[in-house]
Please model this.
Amino acid sequence: MNPTSSPLSDATPSQVLGACPHDCPDTCSMLTTVAGGIAIKVQGNPAHPHTDGALCTKVSRYTERTYHPERLLHPLKRVGPKGAGQFERVSWDDALQDIAAKLGAIASRGPDAAQAILPYSYAGTMGLIQGDGMSARFFHKLGASLLERTICAAAGGEGLTQTLGGKVGMRVEFFAEAKLILIWGSNSIASNLHFWRYAQVAKRNGAKLVCIDPRRSETADKCHEHIALLPGTDGALALALMHELITNDWLDHDYLAQHTLGWDLLRSRALQWSPERAALVCGISVEQIRSLARDYGACVASREPAAIRMNYGLQRVHGGGNAVRLIASLPALIGAWRHRAGGVLLSSSGMFPVNKAALQRPDLLAGKTPRTINMSTIGDDLLRPASAEFGPAIEALIVYNSNPVAVAPESAKVVQGFARDDLFTVVLEHFQTDTADYADYLLPATTQLEHWDVHSSYGHTDALLNRPAITPLGEAKPNTQIFRELAQHMGYTEPCFADDDPALCRMAYGDAVDFDELLDKGFATLKLAQAPFAQGNFPTPSGQCEFFSDRLAAQGLDGLPDHVANHEAFNSSATYPLAMISPPARNFLNSSFVNVKSLRDIEGEPLLEMHATDAAARGLHSGEVVRVFNQRGVYRCKVAISQRARPGVVNGLGVWWRKLGLDGTNVNQVTSQNLTDLGHGPTFYDCLVQVGKDAP
Model:
C-alpha cells in the first residue's frame, strides 16, 4: 500500500503518513492504516531511518486511545461542584459564546486587565501547530499573561544555551559509531527507544556503555556499568571527572586553546574536586569515578569517539542547570567534538529553523508587555491575591495540552487553586482528566489521527508532517479550530485568524524545509554538518564552547559552572531521611496513556520502589500500602522492595492520575515548587520524604 494524503471512506485499506505527537526525543514517523474511514492500525514508518518501522508500546496502542469509550466527543458545561466532574452537554456555539463573554468582560476593565487571564499548556502534543500556533495568536491579541513553559526542560535547556549556545549537539545516528557512551540521567529503553537502537549497534561493535542514574533502570540493566549516584550530585561527578582528566593530562590541549572560553578558570575549579570529595557527595566509590575518568580520557590517546547522551532527569534538581553546563563541557576537554560520533546530546531542538514569529504573531501584542507566570509555580500563583508586585489575581485559566492538577508540583496547592469558585476554567482535552474535573467548560479536542500538524524533534534532526487519517470523532475539533472560533466570538477580525492548518504547516519552516518533501515522504532531514563543532563554531556569542558565561555574570550569577547542592540535601539523620525521585512509569508518558486500560494493566498500580535495607529498617514488605510523607503532604501507595532503588533513595513511579490513586492523590502530593538554579525549572527530584507503615 502506498501512503496517501487523505483517508479513504470505502473499505479499501489505505495508509496515511503521520508523526507521533508525544513528549519523547524520538518523534517517530507513523503510518496509520485506515479502512472504511476507521483507523485500524498504527505502525512505525519503515522508510524513516530513525523510526525504522518501530513504535514504542505506548504509541502502538494509539487506536485504543483514539477510540477509547471515555473519549470526550461533545462540549460540556459544569453543573456540579468544582472537582466533582459533573457536566452537561452544550452546543459549541453556546460554549464559545459564554467563554468569549467571560474573557471579554475581564479584558474590558482596563488596558492591563486581560493579564488576569492565563493560558496553561505544555507538551500534550509536541506539534508546532496544535501546540502553540493559533492559540498564541489568540492570547497575544487578548493581552493575556504569558506562560513561562518550564515544567520539563528549562534548566537543562538554559545550561546548554549558556555553554554550547543553544539546544544543539551531536547527531543521534552517529552514536552507533562511538566507542564509549555515557547514558546520563536517561532510561533510554523506556524514554528514548530509537537512540537505544543506535547504542546497541555501538555495543555490538565493542563500545562500552555506562549508565549514570540514581535508579537501576531497565537501561542500567543492559549497560556494562551502572553508577548509582545520589540525586542532584551529577555536577560533582562531572567536576571530579575533570579533575582526573587534568591531573592525568588526558586532555586535547589544542581543542581547549582554539575552541573554548574560560578554561583556566574551569581548570582551577575542577582541581578542587578530587574523586574522594566527589565520592562523599555522590554516595559512590572513589574507584567508580577514577575508572570512568580513565575510560573517558583514554579516548584522547586512542583518538576514538566518546559520546554522552543526557536526558532531562538529571536537571530536575536545584543545581540542574549547572550540572548540565558541567556535563556539556566535558567533550571539549578531550576534543570529542572532532568526531561525528563524539560530543554530547541533550536536545537537538535548537537546530530546527522554526519561524515562531510567523506562527505565533507576537506583533499582535501591539506594544503590550504582559507579565509572565511560571507554570511550575501554578499552585502558589493561583492562590496569590492581587498586588503591585504580582499584578491582578488570576481569574480565568485556559488549559490545553496539559494536565496540571496531576503533573504540577505540590499538588495539594494546585488542587486548592483550581477549586476556587471565582476561577473560570476552560479545558481542551481528549479525556476527563484530573484537571478536566475542575473545568467550567470542557471542550473536546482531536487526537493526532484527526488533524494536521508539523513537528520538530529534540532527539534527532528530521522535520515531520502529520496528516489527518480520519475525520474527527463526534464534535471534536483541533486546538487551532477552537481558538479560531473563539477569536471570531471575541470579534477579532485580523486575517491571521483565518489561516487554515495546512497554511500554518507551510509557515512553520518557511523556505528552510522543502514542504513538498514533507508531503511526499512525511519527513525531511535538515542539512547539517556531520561533526558540527569539529572546528568550534558553536552558536555562542564567542563562537566557542563557553566554560565561562559573560551572560550569566552580567546577571550577577556565577559565570563558571559549579556543583549546586539540592534545596533538600540528603541527610540520613534528618526528619525526612530519604531522597525521592519520581521517574515516569515505563508504559505512561507523563500523565498521558494512564487511562489506556491495556497499558495500565501492565503497570498495575502506583508503586514506590525501595531498597531492602531501607525497607527492613522500617519493617516494610513488598505489596504493603505505605505512607510517603513530608511537610507538604501524604501520598499512600504500595511499596515494592526492589534492587532498582539504591539505599537512601526511593523511586515514586509516576505520573498516575490522582483519581486513580488510593486517596485521590499521586506522587506530586509531596514534591515542591522550589525552582532550579537556571531556567526557573521545577525540582521534582529534589525532594526528601519519610516512608512508614500505613495506619491500621
In short: Confidence is low (pLDDT under 50) at residues 4-8. The chain has three domains: 76-152+371-525, 155-346, 578-693. The chain is about 30% helix and 20% strand. Residues 286-302 form the longest helix (17 residues).
